[in-house]
Design brief:
There is one protein chain. This protein starts with a helix and ends with a strand. The chain is globular and about 70 Å long. It is built from six helices and 28 strands. The strands form seven sheets. It has a four-stranded antiparallel β-sheet with strand order 1-28-27-26. A four-stranded antiparallel β-sheet has the order 2-3-4-5, with no helix packed on it. It has a four-stranded antiparallel β-sheet with strand order 6-7-8-9, with no helix packed on it.
């Protein structure tokens, strides 16, 4: 039954953009209330045939009301997309992707991305111990969702990032262009907003949890970085950007949380010692454009950044001093922004190499293998998503190294959340969640994958509950 009411809600969400186009707050309230009513109704035992008939009739009524049959067109598009999207969209985008060039290359030629290699990235079928940890389920079973757990709508503008706390399945934080951050408790029910962090004078573009989850660092278009104490909601320190620029991204150094890395709109990456409030000497470097994303590998020795011109840079990070040494530069997609980089160390005998998941504004999500001490990248997979204008983010599914197969999840400008199997060459989409009425900007799993949070450009955050199967 849950699957049917989720389809009904997804149908309403697709038409929601036509309801009072000038009143996004009303649309958010409508979807939230609709979700509550459908969830309550799903508890009652109804004939599934009647519910399916209701879904069909409601689609026809909405089509007549708004002058277009989105449900039929959507299903036709999804079917045709699965057949020809990779052929038409990605082939068309092939001209947008430029070849792999190191930072010291001098050539101006433009090359196409090489075909992904066929080496296995994830545990093989022989990894019985790993499979046993998740009950020997298929990927499709593991990423089936029972519906919406809760909807948060405390933000009035786009939510730019949403993240569960480290190794925590209950606490969730998000930041918004309305200038605030919020910390939420999603379980036990009812889900609540614990506190709203106020202090930035312009939109908050990014944030990061500390390793112990007691601190949050945030950055803003107001050109400042703020350190917050989570339990009290107190701002402990404010530091301005040393270039006087808008700050687009930030991240805690995973080994030494006294150090923060920031990327600004002028293309500079800086290392900040928050204990002293001073920027580290030798901890700065320059990219070709505005730095939209920063991330570390788990050991904290390699820093990755992505800029608005389609370039990814790797730096060797000295944990003791905070100094940066540039290692590699890769042009992933020339002229299209790199909006998200996620790093993953593959902790299994069958998949020894670390990987990067990269969103670029050319309708593509790319998976790379990292090799060598300098962080050379090798393209492994390329998945089609809708992304041209927004800072769409993605991530690895936390339990991916413990089961047969592995998944990544991404937001998309078509208002959907996509799950991709990194091993499937044909039809890699494992699941597609629909419920947002605006482009989905960011997604985040809690550590045991029981809940998934997705945030959109109108300020709504949906927490999805994964279906539990015995």
């Amino acid at each position: 039954m849950a699957a049917v009411w989720q389809q009904i809600l997804a149908q309403d969400a697709r038409y929601n953009a036509y309801r009072l186009p000038g009143s996004p707050q009303f649309r958010t309230q409508y979807i939230r209330r609709r979700s509550q009513l459908l969830r309550e109704n799903a508890k009652v035992d109804h004939d599934p045939i009647i519910r399916k008939q209701y879904l069909k009739v409601r689609g026809q009524i909405l089509g007549q009301r708004y002058g277009t049959s989105l449900s039929e067109q959507g299903s036709q598009r999804s079917r045709s997309a699965s057949k020809c999207s990779s052929r038409l969209t990605l082939d068309r985008e092939e001209g947008d992707f430029r070849g792999h060039r190191r930072y010291h290359s001098s050539g101006s030629g433009k090359f196409s991305l090489p075909s992904p290699t066929e080496d296995g990235l994830v545990p093989t079928r022989a990894a019985e111990a790993s499979r046993a940890m998740v009950g020997d389920k298929t990927l499709d079973e593991n990423y089936a969702f029972a519906g919406m757990h809760h909807i948060f709508d405390q933000h009035s503008q786009a939510v730019m990032a949403v993240k569960f706390a480290n190794d925590d399945k209950a606490r969730l934080a998000c930041c918004s262009l309305d200038g605030t951050l919020s910390v939420c408790q999603v379980i036990p029910e009812p889900a609540t907003v614990l506190c709203v962090l106020k202090g930035h004078t312009s939109g908050v573009t990014d944030f990061s949890w500390s390793l112990s989850n007691d601190m949050i660092v945030s950055c803003s278009l107001d050109g400042t970085v703020r350190l917050w104490q989570v339990p009290t909601g107190t701002c402990l320190r404010v530091v301005g950007d040393c270039d006087g620029a808008e700050i687009m991204s930030c991240a805690f150094q995973p080994v030494n949380n006294n150090m923060i890395v920031t990327g600004n709109k002028k293309g500079f990456v800086h290392v900040l010692n928050f204990s002293t409030g001073k920027y580290v000497k030798g901890g700065s470097s320059k990219a070709s454009g505005s730095i939209l994303t920063t991330t570390f590998e788990s050991g904290g020795k390699t820093l990755w950044i992505g800029d608005e011109n389609g370039c990814v840079y790797s730096f060797a990070f000295d944990v003791g001093t905070g100094k940066l040494s540039r290692a590699q530069r890769l042009v992933v997609c020339e002229g299209h922004p790199i909006t998200c980089i996620s790093a993953r160390s593959w902790m299994s005998r069958e998949a020894r190499d670390p990987s990067l998941l990269i969103n670029c504004g050319a309708n593509a999500l790319c998976l790379y293998r990292v090799s060598g001490v300098e962080g050379s990248l090798q393209l492994k997979r390329k998945f089609p998503i809708k992304q041209r204008n927004l800072r769409i983010r993605s991530g690895f599914c936390p339990l991916m190294s413990f089961r047969q197969g592995a998944c990544v999840v991404s937001g998309s400008e078509d208002m959907s959340v996509y799950f991709f199997d990194v091993e499937r060459t044909n039809k890699p989409v494992v699941n597609k969640l629909q419920g947002h009425s605006a482009p989905v900007i960011d997604v985040s799993f809690n550590y045991d994958e029981s809940l998934l949070a997705s945030a959109d450009s109108e300020g709504m955050v949906i927490v999805w509950k994964r279906e539990q199967r015995s």
